[in-house]
Amino acid sequence: MNNIEGILPLLKPAGMTSHDCVMKIRRLYQTKKVGHTGTLDPDVVGVLPICIGKATKVAQYMSDYSKTYVGEVTIGISTTTEDASGEVVETKDVNKPWSKEDIIALLDSFKGEITQIPPMYSAVKVNGKKLYEYARANQTVERPKRKVRIHRLELTSDLILNETSNTFSFSFEVECSKGTYVRTLAVDLGKALGFPAHMSYLKRTASGPFTMEVCTSLSELEEMEGVDERVKVLRPLDEAIAHLPMLIVDKEVEQLIKYGSVLQEEKGLDEMRFTVYNGQGECLAIYQKHPTKAGLIKPEKMIWTS
């Protein structure tokens, strides 16, 4: 079945890289045209949208989605990786718990636009080399700051003072923009309290419109009898680009779109980027305003194939 296309909202297990998941999906769907959107760290479980076939063409537009996570912060211990998988860097006993009101106020102070420095153990590139490659070689480099947005950040548990380890922990739910490192958010929450900290647990519960409820696990896919059954759990690629404005064209313009033509801009069309559909509900392309020629639009990504 070489014409398989769609989006698989995968429930990624812990212990696998996002690339591992892609390799497994290629085997299960017997196709090479597979890609993921938005890397999840190996220890993180949760929603990982996988694009298959023609749907790989829209993967870049899915990276703009906000993501939702549930996680746990442990105050009193920091690690090399900013999560529970790393080696301990610093400890500082927490002997007195903060109040619930204190923590809610702390979380509220991180809402909106914030500045982050990516962790050394991350795939961000500096001088053509990934940060984790420097980290594994015991090298440190200056990391570029980035602006991200925290749309929502809420306390979701009781506050726990562990008298054995002298640590303090609580759970949270966060909805954030692309590029946000939740590990770093956990560390920064600790810094604001004057303590080392790390993210002790993390699960992605949503990536754009794809939630845990529509996800399929690798074990469920393996139990299905053949590719025909596995295709049934794929979502249409339209769901990935539903956040973009839509332009529906008649048959005459449809032919021009299929040729990838540069066209006159539609009156009243103010959007920089939009999807183009024919009257039968088929997505033909993603168009954008021409960057140098006013009043014209040009294809940014062709979806239709002959």
Automatic annotation (TrEMBL):
Reactions that this protein is recorded to catalyse: uridine(55) in tRNA = pseudouridine(55) in tRNA
One GO process term, biological-process aspect: tRNA pseudouridine synthesis
Gene3D superfamilies on file: Pseudouridine synthase
Isomerase as UniProt keyword: yes
Domain of life from the UniProt record: Bacteria
Domain tRNA pseudouridylate synthase B C-terminal: 183-241
Keyword Cytoplasm: no
Active site per the UniProt annotation: D41 (nucleophile)
InterPro entries: PsdUridine_synth_cat_dom_sf, PsdUridine_synth_N, tRNA_psdUridine_synth_TruB, TruB_C
Pseudouridine synthase II N-terminal domain location: 26-182
A Pfam family it matches: TruB_N
Database matches in NCBIfam families: TruB
Family per record: Belongs to the pseudouridine synthase TruB family. Type 1 subfamily.
Entry function: Responsible for synthesis of pseudouridine from uracil-55 in the psi GC loop of transfer RNAs.
Annotated protein name in UniProt: tRNA pseudouridine synthase B
Organism the protein comes from: Alkalihalophilus marmarensis DSM 21297
